[in-house]
Write a structure and sequence with these properties.
Layout: H1 5-14, E1 17-22, H2 27-31, H3 35-42, E2 43-44, E3 53-58, E4 63-68, E5 75-76, E6 92-98, E7 103-107, E8 110-114, E9 119-122, E10 129-133, E11 142-148, E12 156-158, E13 164-168, E14 177-183, E15 194-200, E16 206-207, E17 212-213, E18 217-224, E19 232-238, E20 241-247, E21 251-255, E22 262-265, E23 270-277, E24 286-287
Parallel strand pairs: 1-3
Antiparallel strand pairs: 2-21, 3-4, 4-11, 5-10, 6-9, 6-11, 7-8, 7-10, 9-12, 13-14, 14-15, 15-23, 16-22, 17-24, 18-21, 18-23, 19-20, 19-22
Length: 294
C-alpha cells in the first residue's frame, strides 16, 4: 500500500529521536562498579547517526547531551515525551558546537551558518529550531548540550574569533593547551549552561591537570579530533578513589559534581566541556594536588 506523503513525514519524524535517561550515582555506588557498569552509567557513544537526534539525559542537573547529523534534509528539533514540554526549549536553553562539515541552524526563522568548531547559543522560549548540512557528502555534526532555564536570553552565534582564549600548561608537563571559552558568561549571558573547547598542542596529552572538582556544577566532556587508531583514557571518581574509562573519537562522558574529570590521550586531541549548576564562575574549582590522587 502506498503511504500518503503526510503520513510518511509523520512516521519519519517519530524515528528521528532516540532518548535515554541515566540516573545519578553516588560515590558509594561508583566504588563498586566494574568496567561495563562504569561505561553504562557515564559513557555516551554513537552521538552522530545520519538524520537522527540522539539524546542522553543525566539526572545530574537534568543535563541533556546530544548530537544530530542531518544528511537527507533539514531536521526539526522536537521535544521527546520524557520532557513533558510543548516544545523542546519551552523550559530549556541549548548550546551547539559544530564538529563536522559546514551547516546551518535556523532558530525562529533566523539562519545561523556554523563552520567547524563554531558555536551557537539558543535561548529558552525558542519554538522552532532546524538543523541543515550544506553538503550531504560532508555533513555537519552538531554537538548539543541543553539545561533547564528560568529566563530567556538572546540567541547568538559565537565564532572562534569571538571566543575568550586562554593558553595554559607546558610541553614539559605534557599539558600545553588552548582553552576557547565559547558559551560562557564572560562572552554572552546564559542561565546556567556553559560550553567551551580545549585544544591540546602536539606532544601534549593531559587535559585539566591538575585535576579538580566543583560541588556547585556537573560537567560533560566530549572528545573529538582523536586520530585514527588512538584513544583517550578519561579519569573520574573522587580524588582518593579514581576510576578510568577508555574513550574513542566523538564520544562523551558524564562527570558528577563530586568527581574529577581529566584525561590523557595516546596523542593530542580536542575536547568540548559543558557545565551546568548553580554557579557561573568558571574559576570556582577545588584543585586536587597531583601527588594526592589515588
Amino acid at each position: 500500500m502506498q503511504t500518503e506523503p503526510s503520513t510518511l513525514a509523520e512516521s519519519r519524524t517519530k524515528q528521528e529521536t532516540t532518548f535515554e535517561s541515566r540516573y545519578a550515582s553516588s560515590p558509594v555506588e561508583v566504588k563498586g562498579m566494574n568496567t561495563d557498569q562504569l561505561r553504562q552509567n557515564f559513557l555516551i557513544e554513537n552521538l552522530f547517526i545520519a538524520d537522527q537526534f540522539r539524546w542522553v539525559l543525566s539526572f545530574f542537573d537534568r543535563y541533556l547531551t546530544g548530537g544530530v547529523m542531518p544528511v537527507v534534509g533539514p531536521l526539526t528539533l522536537q521535544a521527546p515525551d520524557q520532557l513533558k514540554a510543548a516544545y523542546f526549549l519551552e523550559r530549556r536553553e541549548l548550546g551547539i558546537i559544530n564538529v563536522g562539515g559546514s551547516g546551518r541552524v535556523i532558530a525562529n526563522g533566523v539562519s545561523y551558518d556554523l563552520e567547524y568548531k563554531e558555536a551557537l547559543y539558543i535561548g529558552q522560549g525558542t519554538q522552532d529550531v532546524q538543523f541543515i548540512s550544506h553538503d550531504d557528502t560532508s555533513p555537519a555534526k552538531f554537538y548539543l548540550n541543553s539545561t533547564p532555564a528560568h529566563q530567556s536570553y538572546p540567541t547568538r552565534k559565537v565564532s572562534r574569533a569571538d571566543a575568550e582564549v586562554v593558553e595554559l600548561g607546558s610541553l614539559e608537563t605534557a599539558n600545553h593547551r588552548t582553552i576557547n571559552k565559547l558559551l560562557v558568561n564572560s562572552v554572552l549571558p546564559t542561565c546556567q549552561l556553559q560550553m567551551g573547547m580545549t585544544e591540546l598542542k602536539a606532544g601534549s596529552v593531559w587535559n585539566t591537570m591538575p585535576a579538580h572538582t566543583h560541588d556547585r556544577r556537573m560537567e560533560v566532556y566530549f572528545y573529538f579530533d582523536v586520530p585514527k587508531g588512538q584513544s583517550v583514557c578519561h579519569f573520574m571518581g573522587q580524588p582518593q578513589e579514581t576510576r578510568h574509562i577508555w574513550m574513542q573519537n566523538e564520544q562523551a562522558v558524564i562527570s558528577p559534581n563530586w568527581s574529577i574529570h581529566s584525561g590523557a590521550g595516546t596523542s593530542n586531541y580536542t575536547f568540548i566541556w559543558g557545565m551546568a549548576g548553580e554557579n557561573l564562575d568558571y574559576g570556582d574549582m577545588d584543585f586536587c594536588a597531583i601527588n594526592d590522587l589515588r
